Amino acid sequence: MLVALGAVIGGAWWLGQDSSDPAPVSTTPSGEVTPTDSEVALADKLPTLPGEQSPNNSTMSVDRGAELGLYPEQTANFFTEHGVTEVIVRGSLDGSTGYLLLVLRTGEPAQAQHVAEHLYQVTLPEKSTESEGPPRIASGFFEQKWVHGAWYASNEYAVALVVTEPSNGEPGTLSEKLQRIVEPLQEVLPAH
């Protein structure tokens, strides 16, 4: 279901973007969202991912995320049906290691939990290791990449963090790299 998110895991999203002009965080016809003061504060409080930052790091509408190929239209519809009103996107590339953080704002904690669980189930279809959490952490191999991820709800937010390494990389380091982001992330968005 999250075929396009698989492309993100594979690095196609990162490499296919024009890095000459960063995406603005304002209301535009392209679907950017003007965040409220509390959302600006949340976006500003998120930990900086290691490495070169994606030009698409911003707060955006669900539709804009689909337009950028972060997830297919079917997933965008699922998000909308389950109360997601906007997505904070953070991505980076540190050497061969890719990072992707999605923070999806819903209307209530129960919806956030449902969205986080859905992302956990479909982002990495075959998991070689997994833990119940929160956060739920899993690892596996997907589209020629080693993947380690964390999924959880924090009040009205669903959180998905994925760290990847090419098949010829060092998958043993992904757990440590994930934890280095999860710990400060949970200071801002604690797992529930």
Outline of the structure:
The protein has 192 residues and is an alpha+beta fold. 34% of the residues lie in helices and 28% in strands. Strands 1, 2, 3, 4, 5, 6, 7 and 8 form an eight-stranded antiparallel beta sheet that branches.
Give a description of the structure.
This protein is of the alpha+beta class. The chain has one domain. Helix content is 34%, strand content 28%. Strands 1, 2, 3, 4, 5, 6, 7 and 8 form an eight-stranded antiparallel sheet that branches. The model is unreliable at 1-30 (pLDDT under 50).
List keywords for this structure.
192 residues, alpha+beta, eight-stranded antiparallel beta sheet, 7 helices, globular, disordered N terminus
Structural topology:
Layout: H1 3-10, H2 12-15, H3 37-45, E1 52-53, E2 58-60, H4 62-67, H5 73-81, E3 86-94, E4 97-105, H6 109-123, E5 129-131, E6 136-142, E7 145-154, E8 157-166, H7 174-188
Antiparallel strand pairs: 1-3, 2-3, 3-4, 4-8, 5-6, 6-7, 7-8
